[in-house]
Amino acid sequence: MIGTARALALFALAAFSFSVAAQECKNRGDLDPLYCDDDGDLVADTPKDAKKLKNPNTLVFTYTPVEDPAVYEKIFKPFTDYLAQCTGKRVVFYQVQSNAAEIEAMRSGRLHVGGFSTGPTAFAVNIAGAVPFAIKGYEKDFQGYNLIVIVRKDSPFQKLPDLKGKRFAHTSPSSNSGHMAPLALFPKDGLTPDKDYKILFSGKHDQSVMGVNSGDYDAAAVASDVFHRMATRGQIKEENFRIIYKSAKFPTSSFAYAHDLEPAFRDKMVKCFYDYRYNEDMKKAFDGADRFYPINYKEHWAVVRQVAEAGGEKFNSAAYEKETKREEEARRKAAEEKKK
User: Model's pTM, two decimal places?
Assistant: First the structure.
C-alpha cells in the first residue's frame, strides 16, 4: 500500500514537472519533451536553469561506430591529446559499438561531445539533445559522401533492377546511406527495398563491404567515404568492385555537443575544435579533410531530413525505439553469420 502510494506520488510529480516544462516551452518541434527549441533552430536550447548546466572535469568524446571503434580511438589520439591541453580537461575516448549506444550515451549524460553518423545525427538531435557544430572539411567547404551500391566486378549486375531477388545488404536501420536513403531513392530507379529484395542488415558499412567482397552478399548500399577508406588502408582492392549507383552528395558525420554544457566552457571547447588542424594520419584516414568545418543542423541536414520524409521515416521517439530494436537484431544476426 505504501509502495503504491509512493509510486503514485512520484508519477504525479513527474506529470507536474512535465506539465511545467511544457508550459515553459514555446516551441519543441520534433524534439523530445525534455528539450525546447524556442529559437527555432531545430536543436535543443541551452537550459535556462544554471543548476542543469554541466562543466565536467573529464570530457568524454567518441566517434560514430561505422567501423571498428578501436581504429578511431587511435586515429583521434593526437586530437584528444590536443583537446585536453586546449580545454584544461581530462579527455577520454569512449568506444561505442552501435549508433543506438552512442545516442543513449549522450541522452543519459555519459557522453559530452562526439561524431555521429549522418542518419543517426537527426535521432541524436531529437532524442539526446545533441547540437551539431562541425563536419570534417577543408578551408572552403565541408566533406561530403555519396550513397553507392557496390557489387563484385566479376558479377553480372550492371544496374539496380538487376538486383531484384538478390542478396542485398543494408547496414543498420538508422543509417542514412546504409538504409534510409536507399528506401527513398531506389524506387525511382526501378528497385524497391523490401519488395524487390529482402533487406539483409550487416550491422556496419565495413561489414557490408567485406560481405560483398567475400560473396556473402550480391550487393550492398554503403557510404562512399567508408568504402574508399577501406581501400586506402588495404582492407580491400577497389578494382575488385563495381559501383553501379551513386547518389547526390550528403554531409559526412557531424560533431555534436550535449545541449546542457555550460556555455562558456562549451564555446571554448568548440573553438578548440575549429582551431585544430589534422595531422597527416588523420588527413589520410579522412580522405584529405584537414579540419572541423563549422556547420549548423538546420541548414546542412536539410537534405537528410528530406530523404527521410520522402521514405516515410521519422526521427521521433517512436521511430527511435523501433530502429533501436531493429539495429540490435541486425547486429545479432550479423554476429551469428560471422560465426558460421
Answer: 0.73
Residue 101 burial class via C-beta count within 10 angstroms: exposed 0-12, middle 13-18, buried 19 and up? middle
CA distance 263 to 321: 31
Domains of the chain listed by start with CATH number: 19-142+252-300 (3.40.190.10), 145-249 (3.40.190.10)
| Residue 124 to residue 114: CA distance in whole angstroms | 11
Residue 125 to residue 131: CA distance in whole angstroms? 6
- Overall size of the chain counted in residues: 340
What band does 6 get if pLDDT is binned at 50, 70 and 90? very low
Cell of 6: 509512493
Which is nearest to 59 in space by CA: 96, 92, 102?
Answer: 92
Distance CA 71, CA 37 (A): 36
Q: pLDDT tens, 199-208?
A: 999 999 999 9
